[in-house]
Amino acid sequence: TVVGAVGGAVAGNAIEKNRNPGTVRETYRVSVQLDNGTGRAYDVPSTGDLRIGDRVRIENGLLYRM
Fold first, then answer.
1. Which of 9, 39, 40, 55 could share a disulfide with 66, CB 3.0–4.6 Å?
2. Whole-number Å distance between alpha carbons of 10 and 26
3. Residue 31 — φ and ψ, nearest 5°?
4. Can you tell me the distance from the alpha carbon of 66 to that of 56, in angstroms, rounded to the nearest whole number?
5. Please, are residues 23 and 54 in contact by the beta-carbon 8 Å criterion?
6. Which residues are CB-neighbours of 35 under 8 A, at least 6 positions away?
């Protein structure tokens, strides 16, 4: 169980679109703070129903809202 945060996704996508206008693959970087205080970032194709502050479960590198 971890606490998740969706942050910088919109800005990151806008920057990437400007750098590579012809070969854009939209992804979102989701920053997650683990229960032990460390953090990780995951690149996902969609944020789905994740919102800032949601608790998430990580299985096989995939994030699931709890």
1. 55
2. 10
3. -95, 130
4. 5
5. no
6. 1, 2, 3
Q: What is the pLDDT along the chain (66 residues), one digit of tens a residue?
A: 444 444 455 455 556 666 655 666 788 888 999 889 999 998 888 888 888 889 998 888 788 888
Tokens matching residue 65: 């809202």
Chain length of the chain: 66
61/10 Cα distance (integer angstroms): 21
Rounded Cα distance between 18 and 23, Å, is 10
Phi and psi angles of residue 9, each rounded to the nearest 5 degrees, phi first: -65, -45
Which amino acid belongs to residue 11?
A
d(CA 33, CA 23): 31
